[in-house]
Design brief:
The protein has 333 residues and is α+β, with helices and mostly antiparallel strands. It has helices at residues 2-18, 234-270, 279-291, 296-306, 311-322; strands at 22-25, 29-30, 35-41, 46-52, 58-65, 68-73, 81-89, 92-100, 134-136, 147-154, 162-167, 175-177, 187-189, 192-194, 208-210, 222-223. It is built from five helices and 16 strands. Strand 10 and strand 11 (162-167) form a beta hairpin. It starts with a helix and ends in an 11-residue tail after the last helix.
Length: 333
């Protein structure tokens, strides 16, 4: 039993590893004017992809569903160096890097500094030496690991580029939301993502609301026009537009049909029926029809539909015709 349980746990762990979110680029080295293709795999639900330049500033923002691909043109930003592609999905974040006009910018990180050239005199002897001039990006947001990082490049090329990290305060959520999508069936939706990737939802703004309702709380940190709102199917918008434009005619037509049906029913039930004047006339008519070969059931049906005689009177007429006729001799005493 323990072996079976252990096998199930190992299987679930291996499945979770396989299903981890992944983001990759078509290559790692690019020049100005190239197009970077980023592929997102094993993402659950809506994913937000952000491209950041070497200074840590967001230069492009995209959203998609499931496993998908997007592109970024390196002419969108003039900075050279290591760019970061980060993706945030329901089942976790992921990121990768690529270089723009900076060959080897990724592999050069975290390498030991090269030794000083033996041809250059050291500062202790009073001679000139290569003095690093570090240019660093801003610190990244404090993420779920409570650490921040940044990239540094030596402008004098004395030493290789490097990454630095430091501890930070607990992760603080910062939700960025798109504009509200068009009104559909009385509701509106929007897309939101946490730019700090805290993996918590304590301050996540509402994603849906009624078309005429105020924005739900809590509010987002900011609204981004770069982040597209959720896609609304054109068919749903078209159906809503047809109903809004012609609902008066639809309601009026239905009311006219109902009124016509009520008028026809009233005519059918209140139409004056032909009425026989006396019982003798009824008997004579029945006798005539029977002599013509009309069946008793047909005669009854005709009388019910076309005269005012009731069942009792009709039965009485048939019974009287069944009795033998009596001949009364007026002269007998």
């Amino acid at each position: 039993m323990k072996k079976i349980f252990l096998f199930i746990v190992l299987f679930l762990l291996s499945f979770s590893l396989v299903a981890a979110v992944q983001v990759s680029t078509s290559k790692t080295e690019y020049s100005g004017g190239d197009t970077v293709t980023a592929t997102i795999s094993d993402c659950t639900g809506t994913s937000i992809v952000r491209f950041k330049n070497p200074g840590g500033d967001t230069v492009d923002l995209k959203s998609g569903e499931g496993s998908w691909s997007t592109s970024y043109n390196t002419l969108s930003d003039s900075a050279d160096g290591k760019y970061t592609v980060s993706v945030s999905c329901t089942n976790g974040p992921a990121q990768t890097n690529f270089c723009v006009d900076a060959p080897g910018c990724i592999s050069s990180f975290n390498l030991p500094a090269p030794p000083e050239s033996p041809n250059l005199p050291s500062t202790s002897n009073g001679g000139s030496s290569c003095t690093p001039d570090w240019s660093c990006s801003t610190w990244t947001f404090c993420g779920p690991t409570s650490t921040q990082s940044r990239s540094c490049t030596d402008l004098n090329h004395c030493q290789s580029a490097k990454d630095e990290s430091r501890a930070c305060e607990p992760c603080l959520e910062s939700w960025i939301c798109s504009l509200w999508a068009e009104c559909n069936a009385g509701n509106q939706a929007r897309a939101c993502y946490d730019e700090h990737f805290c993996e918590t939802t304590n301050y996540k703004p509402g994603l849906e609301k009624g078309c005429n309702q105020a924005d739900p709380l809590p509010p987002p940190a900011r609204i981004s026009s770069q982040l597209p709102p959720p896609f609304t199917p054109p068919s749903a918008i078209a159906q809503q537009s047809v109903w809004d434009n012609y609902k008066i005619y639809f309601i009026g037509g239905a009311a006219a049909v109902l009124l016509a049906a009520l008028v026809l029913l009233a005519i059918h039930y209140f139409k004056p029926k032909q009425v026989a004047y006396n019982l003798n006339e009824l008997k004579q008519w029945v006798r005539k029809e029977k002599n013509m070969g009309t069946s008793e059931s047909d005669i009854r049906q005709i009388l019910k539909q076309n005269t005012g005689w009731n069942n009792e009177e009709i039965n009485s007429a048939f019974e009287s015709l069944k009795q033998p006729s009596r001949v009364v001799n007026a002269n007998s005493a």
